[in-house]
Amino acid sequence: MRLGLALALVAALLVGCGGGDDTSPDGLALPPVGAVVDYQLGGRYAPADDVDVVTRDSSSIPDPDRYSICYVNGFQTQPGGSRDVFVVLHGVDLLLQEGGDDVIDPGWPEETLFDISTPEKRDELAEVVGDWIRTCANDGFDAVEVDNLDSWTRSRGLLTQDDAEAFAALLVEAAHDAGLPIGQKNSAEIDGPALGFDFAVTEECAVYEECDVYTDMYGGHVIEIEYTDNGREAFEQACDDAAGDRSILLRDRDVVPDDDPAYVFEHC
């Protein structure tokens, strides 16, 4: 058994079966409150000795010695040509279209939104993304975070928050069936615990002054990522306000590996 998961399971045994500080109500081991988290989406590298939790893309491998979170882009295609692969495997009907053209994420022009507008399409897509989540579990990850929960806000009005919540509930079910706790990624307007999410991963909540929204929902089970292109003030203020109460880290926007000159990783 890997060290990170073993430690989390020991914590679970200590608090009993009813759910404790590091255990979900279903008995799943959660990322420890206030842990040092390294966010490695831009490429895998050996984390520093004081790191307790590592997040990596689902295409990567988990850290064998730490609690590992698997990043899944659950509401959009991946960059790098995955849209074409997705169409070959699953058809264009599951991609959001307007006038025969893909509806893309304006911030990530290689990512097409999934069409979660009907129960039938949500069910089909939940099987696809559920397979990705099950792969995370089979690869040895301890938890999963699913990105772009807020894709409806970039859908040109073709999707609604209700669509996103209905699809998210299916992904929560898939994660729990695979034995993984699942993190709500951003979207402070959504009541994640009501959908079954177990913890939160939030980007720039100090910048947008919404960290309290997440801690009100999840207590200390919040991983906060601030980015250097916003300056250091928000990160430093968050550390002053809540160091140890939740995980807080500062990263470069592209979350590059540690051998890149642009690499930044700090925590409090």
TrEMBL record:
Glycoside-hydrolase family GH114 TIM-barrel domain mapped to chain residues: 38-255
Keywords for the protein's UniProt record, in alphabetical order: Signal
Gene3D superfamilies for this protein: Aldolase class I (3.20.20.70)
Keyword flag Signal: yes
Source organism superkingdom: Bacteria
Keyword Signal: yes
Signal peptide residue numbers: 1-20
Transmembrane segments: none
The protein's name in its UniProt record: Endo alpha-1,4 polygalactosaminidase
Organism the protein comes from: Aeromicrobium alkaliterrae
